[in-house]
Please model this.
Amino acid sequence: MMVAMNTHTWHGELRRNELMSQHTSWRVGGPADLFYRPDGIADLAAFLREADPELPLVWIGLGSNLLVRDAGIRGIVVFTIGCLNRIESLGNTRVLVEAGVTSAKVARFCAAQDLHGAEFLAGIPGSMGGALAMNAGAFGSETWQVVESVETLDRHGNLHQRTAEDFDISYRHVKGAENEWFVSATLKLEHGISEESRSRVRSLLDKRNQSQPIGTANAGSVFKNPLHDHAARLIESCGLKGHCHGAACVSDKHANFILNKGGATSADIESLIEFVKHKVSEDTGVTLETEVRIIGEANA
Model:
């Protein structure tokens, strides 16, 4: 595992064998071989230029749509929260947001700038990097509906300017150039009234709090909604609310959430995910697709 250490030009924090359970909202996950907190985009570019290009690379924000297996991650994890955290108004209803800014903060910032259209981001429990990568959505809106352009960083530390036309974008799906990762986005919004936008943000958060198990160890929606249906309805129709594998349980409040009730392993959660998929397919004929990313190695 080679990362230049003696004459390096990067200034971030590099850790070894960092437990990913400390960085995922499910509070599970084994160690990452290398874990890097960059000191901004330029620093991250310098780090990638000096890192071994053969090492696998994984980017993580809030870890809220992610299941890291119990044996952890081989290679390098790039951690963006608190690092790529710039957000500023560019004028003309445009806002620059770096990948490590939480979606909820973007919603509040835009509302305070008298901008309309980003309120739905308050309902996405993650960072902008993750929202861009999966076209995250909430309350009927999706991330890429408000994206004008993005900046990506490739495996060799080169920056690229991209627009939506450079990506294949659909429901919870974004595919672009291989081995490029989002480091910032320029959002194009509409003029609005600050208090109206703030009120909508509060209303959407209240709606989320009433319908979802906020404050528990979960990763958000586990499954994508099938066309013209809802994963939660299908799971509940199969009588799976409250069903557990170990300390991993389907939420009694929202059936498309799986909770770590305390002491669950990644294997418990993955086993429950597979059980739910099998049961729903068997009972309804619908094959659910996972929305959460499952990465890393399982224990032997």
Helices lie at 41-50, 103-112, 128-134, 194-211, 231-237, 266-284. Residues 266-284 form the longest helix (19 residues). The two ends are 22 Å apart (CA to CA). The chain has a mean pLDDT of 93.
